[in-house]
Design goal:
This protein has helices at residues 4-11, 17-50, 55-104, 107-110, 115-130, 132-158, 160-165, 168-206, 208-213, 217-246, 248-268, 274-315, 380-387, 410-416, 431-436, 444-453, 457-461, 480-494, 510-524, 559-565, 567-577, and strands spanning 340-347, 357-364, 369-373, 395-400, 403-404, 417-421, 498-502, 528-533, 544-549, 552-557. Helix content is 62%, strand content 10%.
Length: 588
């Protein structure tokens, strides 16, 4: 179990942190010295220039005030800029680590149902934690150095007044401790309510078609209104505790009024000069500023602790392989077709839930194409997820060649095992961006060659901007068939040795299905291929099929053989026969 300090230090780590912290402390100390010197300079100006009517001293004193004010401003800006730079460096590092953690974590947490939570983690929670540098550490350092400088100077010049002035600090600290813990809980509740609202808004916007078609406006509005009310109530609760923290100003100013009374009495008794009295008022006023900054720092720290709890839960989970690392035992996967073996696989999503796959065993030969069929819920997509290393099996293993699937170095594995899904995801950007998807080493000629092989070049060049045409959010400016061919072009560019086609031609119109099928036929040539489908109308007679039913492999053979020997396959085929003859086209 990590200690609280170590957790903060780890979460806030970034390059050159020590150097920036040292620079920030030096700048804060310089700013404190300049600020403390200002009342002293005013005191000298009043007592030695105005009262004695010394014009030269007045000029020099005025110039000194300008220099001290400029020095204070420059040092304060340097201190704030240094801690802000630390904040941005830590924020960038933390966001990248959170993204890596989500990529390595269970796929269920990275899927749409977890999108809202993960988005808040990477944006809002990470920002709240990184703000600890300027808003907590920076403000605390600046306040502490200012208090030390003020008390040191006042001790030298005013004696007992300095000790009396320190009384305001314990009051501030005690007040922060009393209201800090409930503020943390209120902040956490407010953040969680905001996450629920954000996730629901995203879901409503993505489901706007269903809301319009089924006239669900009132239902959706009631849900959003209820969540909005909850957020409002939580935020007012947080505001109440923040206000309670701020109420300490009443006590602080009552204490400071006592110091003003003490200073005024000393002037009346002739123990302080007018300049010293003016400086004392200024110093006491300066003491209020660090007190206020301590409270604000405490407020932000307690709010950041709520974000830290959420980030820590996401960041510190155990993973077998970390992105960017390459332990000596990991194997680099070469770009070639491999034999793929599924050996006695069993899997369940929840340790207490039902078993989704049960002792699944079969083999795909090197360069062979095998089709996995089964009814909805049979476990086909789960099996694909295991092959793609989105899950780890409960029992059994998947081997590629002679190696366990998890023994491959992650980057080479992702490059050489790819998938075309029924509804591929396109990122906002151009067509070229979506074919390359991060492979900046690819040339334009390689990109166009991949598009030609995917039967996409013809429709791309007819667009006004060609390969530089925007695809819109989620590729909404393209048809389903066009998006599918863009996804296939990605694979031609990556040139994987193993491919998975998961319902790759389902839901397309006949013309698009033929075009996509031709592209897939070209893609499968010379590659180890697993086709996942429940559509039997495009099945070549000689292709080997694996029948999955209720999480188990119940048959293995060609179409003709399975029609004679497998009742589960005959049930699937019977559904197809009722309206479609077994003709061969598209993928074949």
């Amino acid at each position: 179990m990590r200690s609280s300090f170590n957790t903060w230090a780890d979460v806030l780590r970034c390059d050159e942190r020590t150097k920036y912290l040292a620079a920030g402390v030096v700048a804060a100390a310089a700013a404190a010295v300049f600020q403390v010197s200002l009342p002293w300079a005013v005191m000298r100006l009043v007592d030695h220039a105005l009262i004695r009517r010394d014009g030269t001293m007045l000029l020099y004193g005025s110039l000194l005030l300008v220099v001290l004010a400029a020095g204070s401003t420059v040092a304060s800006v340097a201190q704030e800029g240094t801690f802000l730079a630390l904040c941005e460096r830590a924020l960038m590092s933390l966001r990248c680590r959170l993204f890596d953690s989500i990529q390595l974590g269970p796929i269920s947490e990275a899927c749409p149902q977890g999108t809202g939570t993960n988005r808040v983690l990477i944006t809002d929670d990470a920002r709240a934690i990184a703000q600890v540098y300027p808003a907590v550490i920076g403000e605390t350092v600046a306040s502490a150095t200012q208090v030390i400088a003020l008390v040191g100077f006042m001790s030298w010049h005013y004696g007992p007044v300095a000790l009396l002035s320190l009384g305001v600090l314990p009051l501030t600290i005690a007040w922060s401790v009393v209201f800090g813990r409930p503020l943390k809980e209120a902040s956490r509740a407010s953040i969680e309510a905001g996450v629920r609202l954000s996730s629901r808004v995203q879901e409503m916007l993505e489901g706007i078609f269903e809301i319009k078609v089924f006239f669900l406006h009132d239902w959706a509005r009631r849900q959003l209104a209820s969540l909005s009310r909850d957020v409002t109530q939580r935020q007012f609760g947080e505001f109440a505790f923040r206000s309670a923290l701020s109420a300490r100003y009443i006590v602080t100013w009552a204490f400071m009024s006592g110091l003003y009374f003490f200073g005024g009495r000393e002037v009346l008794r002739g123990r302080l000069s007018p300049g010293e009295a003016l400086a004392l008022v200024w110093y006491v006023t300066f003491l209020e500023a660090p007190s206020a900054r301590f409270v604000k720092a405490a407020q932000h720290f307690h709010a950041a602790r709520a974000s830290l709890a959420r980030v820590r839960a996401r960041l510190y989970f155990e993973t077998p392989i970390s992105i960017g690392t390459r332990p000596p035992l990991l194997v680099t996967m070469l770009p070639q077709p491999y034999e793929v073996s599924f050996e006695h696989l069993s899997f369940r999503y929840d340790p207490t839930g039902p078993c989704i796959l049960k002792d699944v065993t079969f083999r795909i030969g090197q360069g062979e194409t095998v089709t996995l069929v089964g009814r909805n819920g049979a476990g086909k997509s789960t099996l694909v997820g295991l092959l793609l290393r989105l899950h780890s099996p409960e029992r059994g293993a998947i081997r590629i060649g002679s190696h366990h699937v998890e023994s491959f170095e992650p980057h080479s594995f992702r490059k050489n095992v790819s998938i075309v899904r029924r509804d591929p995801f396109l990122f906002s950007g151009t067509i070229a961006d979506n074919i390359i998807v991060g492979d900046v080493s690819s040339s334009r000629s390689e990109l166009e060659r991949a598009a030609r092989l995917a039967r996409a070049h013809e429709f791309i060049v007819r667009l006004p901007l060609g390969y530089d045409s925007p695809v819109g959010e989620h590729g909404q400016l393209l048809s389903s068939g066009q998006r599918q061919r863009i996804a296939i072009a990605r694979l031609f560019l990556r040139n994987p040795g193993i491919i998975v086609l998961d319902e790759a031609v389902s839901g397309l119109d006949p013309e698009s299905e033929v075009a996509v099928g031709q592209a897939l036929t070209c893609l499968m040539a010379g590659r180890t291929t697993l086709i996942v489908t429940h559509n039997l109308r495009s099945m070549p007679a000689e292709r080997r099929l694996i029948v999955l039913d209720n999480g188990q492999v119940v048959a293995n053979g060609t179409h003709a053989t399975l029609l004679e020997t497998c009742s589960a396959y005959r049930a699937l085929a019977g559904v197809e026969r009722s309206d479609v003859s077994f003709r061969q086209y598209a993928v074949g």
